[in-house]
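Standup notes
- HV: blocked on the assembly model, inputs below
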Amino acid sequence: MKKIFATTKGLVDMPTHYCPGCTHGVIHRIVAESIEELGLRERAVGIAPVGCAVLAYEYFNCDMFEASHGRAPAVATGAKRSRPDLILFTYQGDGDLASIGMGEIIHAANRGEKITVIFVNNAVYGMTGGQMAPTTMPGQYTTTSPYGRDAKDIGYPVRMAEIVATLTTPGFVARVSLHSPAETIRAKQIIKQAFAYQAAGTCFTFVECLSTCPTNWGLSPREAEKWLEEKMIPYYPLGVKKRPEDFQEDQHGAA
Amino acid sequence: MSKVLMKGNEAIGEAAIRAGCVHFFGYPITPQSEVPEYLSKRLPEVGGKYIQAESEVAASNMIYGSAGVGIRVLTTSSSPGISLMAEGLSYIAACSLPVVLVNIMRAGPGLGGILPAQGDYFQAVKGTGHGDFQLVVLAPSSVQEAVNLVVLAFELAEKYLTPVMVIGDGMIGQMMEPVEFPREGVGQPLDPGDWALTGARGRKKRIVNSLHLDPEYCNKINLDLKAKYDRIKENEQRWELYNCDQPYDLLVCAFGMMSRICKTAIDELAEEGYRIGLFRPITVWPFPYQECKQAMQKAKRTLVLEMNMGQMVEDVQIAGQGSREIDFFGTAGGKVFSPDESKEKMLYSLKQAGIGKKTVKTTVKKTTRKKKPAKKRKSR
């Protein structure tokens, strides 16, 4: 019989701890497939965050770090600058990257570190039990915004892809979503492109992945997909925000 | 090999290169900024990499990443910066990675001041960060010794797979002295062993991780670390005895620059007939309790002088185990005891011990340094 499908060698064959309907597992798979298809698995070093994906070091079938909260881009910087032949990727959630790790991600991007950042945005702190994140939508109920996020009081959600894309340093920056099969296929293409840029030594690469959290949103998996599509995508528009070929030398103020 | 006149901070940077470290991640802070300045110029010359981190928090995580992929790495900072590095150091120790860091101490607490102090003794030897971990801590008292101890720090870090800190005060970092570098050129690359993340090529994946949710296993990790620290205590204690080969009435205990000032005071008082010895720990962790105790037992009284409000004195008290009379005087904020002030404190302690004005002249027996016979080490 002809084999038409096999699971990726980029993942360890084991059950994950993710909740039913969570898209972390799908993102793991497309990251692992991208690495495998580009022939990078034996050079890859991943960095797990603190948060729901803290155990990602168990799941990816390549060398892995576990970093402290938000610091994965700094750990990746140290590793990549020390062994430039390695393929470094961080896998970070929104509490990790957009809150406590805001400094590390911005500066890694601004230095143009040749790494790939997979940023999973599900608008909530998952692992700690559904608290408000910097990415929580206006009016969204969480365990620390029990009256709904009041944007007039504590500000609006941060759009990380757009913020990172404003930097002058060349980069590949995109936002994808996992709420439908078509968008998942698109997400895979973008993530693979990001790793291809890194493998070619082109630039810093950043892919924000809109993801569902049925458990902490209090919705069924199907309802969560719908909520993502209707509530998140209008605020977090999908697409490529920046390409390395967009780069123009900024001569202003050159010493 | 000839000596060169160098500023302490620059000599520390060069010493790291001679030890084979060509990767540096750090952040400027007075009074250690000459280290990153020097290395940003030197490292490209030797094929190394200098990266200026966005913060000390990031720097400590960059060295975690660098050591994790099996590369010899250095960072340096000063007191408030070390507080920020505490996060990364706990992870590095937990993951048993070799890194070297240097703290050129300034006055504290808070922003404190930029002048020399020794207020980070507790931080370095008792509680650098969260959890049960320990740094090996080396305390030089001259620019030359700072160079030697930076080289030793890399050897110890790699022998025991653990973070090693060199603590100097701002004076060590800022003053110029003639130094001789113990090694020519760049050393051998770090052996990545069976732990470094070099890519899972033809082998199983490796994980550098400090999350252990199983209490049995997490307990085991702590026991393993303790066993390692016990081995270090057993094998790596270093200290100096000064003027202790002849009978002495007072033992002075001091570390780093303070010990050097004490030597001048001891020499001058010897001219007046006073018999004073000095005990100086070189490894402030592991603290040489036994040798300190033996030195204390030969004196009528012990005096501890520090550029802080009384930190190492607690280790001296442990060494004396409540059986010896111990005086302490401290200074902080960047104010350093002069030799004359140190002499005053010594005369006070001598008076407490019932030793009056002497008229007989004696000569000072010059430096005697004891070291436990080092076991043969494989050179890397």
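- HV (later): unblocked. DSSP finds twelve helices and 16 strands in chain B. Chain B has two domains: 4-235, 239-352.
- Next: hand off to the docking folks.
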